[in-house]
Amino acid sequence: MDDDYLDNEHSEEQRLIMQGGVGIPKDADGNPCPLLAPIGAPDTGRKCLVLDLDETLVHSSFKMIQNADFIVPVEIEGTVHNVYVIKRPGVDEFMRQMGQIFEVVVFTASLSKYADPVLDILDIHQVVRHRLFRESCYNHKGNYVKDLSQLGREIAETIIIDNSPASYIFHPNNAVPISSWFNDIHDTELTDLCPFLSDLSDVHDVRAVLDAGL
């Protein structure tokens, strides 16, 4: 691999970061096709909160977990496998509170055949307005990037919570980082985030608060 190729790769990445993603996708006729449907009446005036799923809200495994909160059967190449899911402490109350102040979107790099049934069970308060899966990610150097510029929402009013910095590489100033969660029953991060996010829902431009360079 020559130096020119690497330089071009790096400059392309810097360009995407500087311009904040690739922008709203367009169909064959050139019409804008944002990933999200127009904002609904109940969420008018609310900011958009984009939540990751795995290792942020839940942890899932094909290996049996004794204390699993629920089990989801997933068919892979004709064979049904059980996926054992445990919920991050505080997730139910976190989702309930966030659903009162934000337009809540779950954006996961997982496949819908796994994530959809998980969300059907997880979203007990029915606050998730939109679900986006792997096919909606932007493949950047083998990473599944969640390009907020494609959502069809004001970037200044969009927040992403994700345990993987690679997921929000195009929008670091919209991100609230969270640690990867697997099974720590004493974890309090979701609960601790609630007051901060509540305050953030009232600011004019979330990037002024979340500026990664500060």
UniProtKB/TrEMBL annotation:
Name used for this protein in its record: NLI interacting factor
Gene Ontology biological process: cellular response to amino acid starvation; negative regulation of TORC1 signaling; positive regulation of transcription by RNA polymerase II; response to salt stress
Species of provenance: Tilletiaria anomala (strain ATCC 24038 / CBS 436.72 / UBC 951)
Molecular-function GO terms, alphabetical: phosphatase activity
Chain segments annotated as transmembrane: none
Superkingdom of source: Eukaryota
NCBIfam families: HIF-SF_euk (TIGR02251)
Residue span(s) of domain FCP1 homology: 42-200
